[in-house]
Amino acid sequence: MNPFRYERALDVDHAVQAASQGGRFIAGGTNLLDLMKENVERPRRLVDISRLNLDRIEPLSDGGLRIGALARNADLAGHPQVLRQYPLLSSALMAGASPQLRNMATTGGNLMQRTRCYYFYDTATPCNKRSPGSGCGAVGGCTRIHAILGASEHCIAVHPSDMCVAMAALGATINVAGPQGRRTIPFEEFHRLPGDAPQYDNTLGEGELITGVDLPAEGFAGHYSYLKIRDRLSYAFALVSVAAALRLEDDGRIAEARVALGGVAHKPWRLPDAERMLAGETPGSRVFARFADALLEGATGQGDNEFKIELACRAIVRALEQAANGTPQSQVDKRIA
Ligand SMILES: Cc1cc2nc3c(=O)[nH]c(=O)nc-3n(C[C@H](O)[C@H](O)[C@H](O)COP(=O)(O)OP(=O)(O)OC[C@H]3O[C@@H](n4cnc5c(N)ncnc54)[C@H](O)[C@@H]3O)c2cc1C
Question: E strand or H helix at 291, and its extent?
Fold first, then answer.
């Protein structure tokens, strides 16, 4: 391991100042420390933010919820208001990692976690994300877990988070403090597609600290499902995941639909124009299959991962059926209903 300096941030301003001078935040450490041990990340200065007062989960005056950046994944998943108003988020969190990891992992760290691409982790292979300009080992390599949407010739990695897929569907906003002051970032503008600069996972600026995430009041609690398809039933990242949320009229027709996909792109994949197609429709597998085609338009396989296109199509239909029927995917009994 490379030598690094460690310091504990005293408050948000101190953290931002230290990060602006080349410091790297560490929160739960469940991703960053792994990457340091693998020599993938080599920060010179670690700024420990874990003791900052950013772990609160509290209601907003507009009926929404503010989640502190240091709220642990386990605490967020089990929070009474999350269970009641945003069960989609709770379900997505419970689909991820293991109990031990969820006890350590923070909301901010989950947003910022890096790809699980084999080539990003293997320092003996080229990777434009780890070492810009070196090439992409995944293109033409083993691509089972790689992107089918929004990839570029420079990078076909996917974002691995479950939590972020639910937050994308819910239309969250990210609160940030930085050297230029505070700002908010709409969720869809936070993570980015790789283009020709895959070293940047998101649009966070130099020295900026995530302070929290706001959820709007509508939580789609009546009709939702988080369906995660993976190689093992637990403790594995998604090959494809679907966060589906519906608001239904009294006559059963769809008033509003939200669908985000995980495991398929460099960011949670959502197309609001395609979602609008579902408004006014009666829920049903034909309508959902048409929607899946629209959401997956342009999907391209890279050899090993071609199966993901059909898998995603079927998972979207199944998750929307579960949401419409009010029978969300259980994260305890993981067999698909
Ligand atoms: C074995 C294993 C299995 C896993 N399985 C899953 C899974 O199935 N699904 C899933 O979604 N995740 C999974 N994870 C990933 C896990 O969710 C992340 O490691 C965790 O969420 C990261 O949070 P952390 O607080 O530990 O982040 P850290 O490791 O402390 O930090 C990660 C990154 O975030 C940055 N950062 C942290 N906080 C902030 C902040 N407030 N502002 C700005 N930057 C910040 C750090 O600088 C660092 O770059 C798994 C992890 C492991 C090790």
Answer: helix 285-295
